[in-house]
Design goal:
One of its GO terms (molecular function) is phospholipid binding. InterPro entries: ABC_MlaD, Mce/MlaD, MlaD_Phospholipid_Transporter. There is one protein chain. This protein is α/β, with parallel strands linked by helices and about 160 residues long. It has 2 domains: about 35 residues; about 100 residues. About 30% of the residues lie in helices and about 30% in strands. It has 2 helices and 8 strands, in the order H-E-E-E-E-E-E-E-E-H. It has an 8-stranded mixed beta sheet, with no helix packed on it. Strand 2 and strand 3 form a beta hairpin.
């Protein structure tokens, strides 16, 4: 009887450990239903959205203020449209704020960083950030550097 009680205790302990790991994985991935905060949608149009994903964070001054909820192609301007849900407690963003696609570290995840403008008119639900800075694609940067090096070598001959 004592052996059976010990086996049941070990099994419950293992089950609790597996559930804790599952909850941790869900929270880290951003899939867990956490504390729901009222939010509003804001749109931004970028020429290049390379590497940005849905559920990427939106930050201002290094503080997480929202998430990217959708990425699609605008058929009229042929640019990428990013839909962001910003926390309702950050409802005082000026209309001339800037949205940039940034990288955490050298090769880390992409996220949207917002820099505050100085306009008195504020962004509202469904508003658009017009001043954007697209993603920096490392392959394009290396290609431009190599092409520039080849052109300099040809001019010196």
């Amino acid at each position: 009887m004592q052996n059976r009680t010990m086996e049941i205790g070990v099994g419950l302990f293992l089950l609790a450990g597996i559930l804790a790991l599952l909850l941790l994985a869900l929270r880290v991935s951003g899939l867990a239903p956490g504390n729901t905060v009222d939010s509003y949608k804001v749109y931004a149009y970028f020429d290049n959205i390379a590497g940005l994903t849905v559920r990427a964070k939106v930050t201002m001054a290094g503080v997480n203020i929202g998430r990217v909820t959708a990425i699609d192609l605008d058929r009229d301007s042929y640019t990428g449209r990013v839909t962001m849900e910003l926390d309702d407690n950050v409802n005082n963003l000026p209309m001339d704020s800037t949205a940039s696609i940034l990288t955490a570290g050298l090769l880390g995840e992409k996220y949207v960083g917002i820099s505050v403008g100085g306009d008195e008119e504020l962004l509202t639900d469904g508003g658009t950030i017009h001043d954007t800075q697209s993603s920096l694609v490392l392959e394009d940067l290396i290609g431009k550097f190599l092409l520039n090096s080849v052109n300099r070598d040809q001019e010196s001959q």
